[in-house]
Design a protein that fits this description.
By secondary structure, the chain is α+β, with helices and mostly antiparallel strands. The chain has a single domain, classed as Cysteine proteinases (Cathepsin B, Chain A), CATH 3.90.70.10. The protein is 27% helix and 27% strand. The chain has seven helices and 13 strands. Strands 1, 4, 5, 6, 7, 8, 9, 10, 11, 12 and 13 form an eleven-stranded mixed beta sheet that branches. A two-stranded antiparallel ribbon has the order 2-3. α2 packs across α4. The radius of gyration is 19 Å and the shape is globular.
Length: 296
């Protein structure tokens, strides 16, 4: 199992981002919003009560749609998003079918996959991680590297040797975001309640040096995400620091405090040339990411 390198190879890209956004010049602290293009994200909903929620499956499919849209030269020739009805066109009904199969199981070349929420699985981090990998192995083999942080030891899981036992850190989230990979967050309440999963899409931080990139001395103020409970909008939530340095945010109708207990990522092993060079300029100039600034 290959792991996405964590080396900070993105500095040059981000410096150009800063120049494009007008961040370079007189240094004035401001809140910088660094976010993925929302139009590239999936908008697949969670199921509604009285059905049991399958938010992790919905969050995954919303991530996979982003990969499909952002890296067509990698995933466009794969079956990452299957055309389940065979009509030759990917539509929301195919995405909903993918969500349901990821949650409740699928068959592929004689192999049965249980699903994240079926066959004794209950949407645990283990079931989510392994079935995410199974999906790529079955539908887009040989295309993707995986990475993650979570507050338990996942080394014995399928492909789990790449997982770091740690609450997700800002450094990990920032590097993953800037590398344009998929990122799914798992949330748990600090008190009683059920967990949730969202697709991470952006950071807002106090950009002290006005360079358009997050640095360790710059406070993160908000996180952006696609919430499968309301997938047609970008959700932004204020953040705080909890026990053990874990990231906390309000979530749900009652805005209870939740903490981020896992962050799983998926991204292409490589982007073919010359598409890689083209995608760099698309990243900076044509809306693959958005940088906006708000003065303090």
């Amino acid at each position: 199992m290959r792991r996405r390198p964590r080396a900070n190879h993105i500095v040059a890209v981000l410096l150009v981002c800063a120049a494009v956004s007008g961040a370079v010049g007189s240094v004035q602290a401001a809140t910088a919003f660094f976010q993925k293009d929302f139009s590239e994200m999936g908008h697949v909903p969670n199921v509604s009560a009285p059905q049991t929620g399958i938010c992790a499956a919905a969050a995954d499919i919303n991530s996979f749609i982003y990969l499909w849209n952002h890296f067509p030269q990698v995933y466009g020739s794969t079956n990452l998003l299957p055309d389940w009805d065979g009509d030759g066109t990917l539509t929301q009904s195919d995405y909903l079918a993918s969500r349901d199969k990821l949650a409740n199981g699928w068959e592929h070349n004689g192999t049965s996959r249980l699903g994240m929420y079926a066959g004794g699985n209950t949407g645990t981090a283990n079931a989510i991680w392994e079935h995410t990998l199974y999906w790529f192995e079955d539908f887009a083999p040989g295309t993707t590297v995986f990475d993650g942080q979570l507050n338990q030891n996942g080394a014995s899981w399928h492909g789990g040797q790449v997982l770091e036992q740690s609450y997700p850190t800002w450094s990990f989230l920032w590097n993953s975001l800037a590398a344009a990979v998929d990122i799914e967050l798992g949330l748990l309440p600090t008190s009683s309640g059920i967990g949730h999963a969202v697709t991470f899409t952006g950071l807002a931080f106090n950009d002290l040096d006005a360079d358009g990139r997050w640095d360790a001395n710059e406070a993160v103020e908000q996180v952006g995400f696609v919430d499968p409970n309301k997938p047609n909008q970008m959700t932004w939530a204020n953040v705080s620091t909890g026990t053990g340095g874990r990231i906390q945010l309000p979530w749900g109708p009652e805005q209870k405090t939740y903490y981020v207990y896992r962050a799983f990522t998926e991204g292409p092993i490589s982007v073919p040339e010359p598409a890689a060079a083209v995608s760099l300029f698309a990243l900076l100039l044509f809306g693959s990411f958005w940088i906006r600034r708000r003065k303090c």
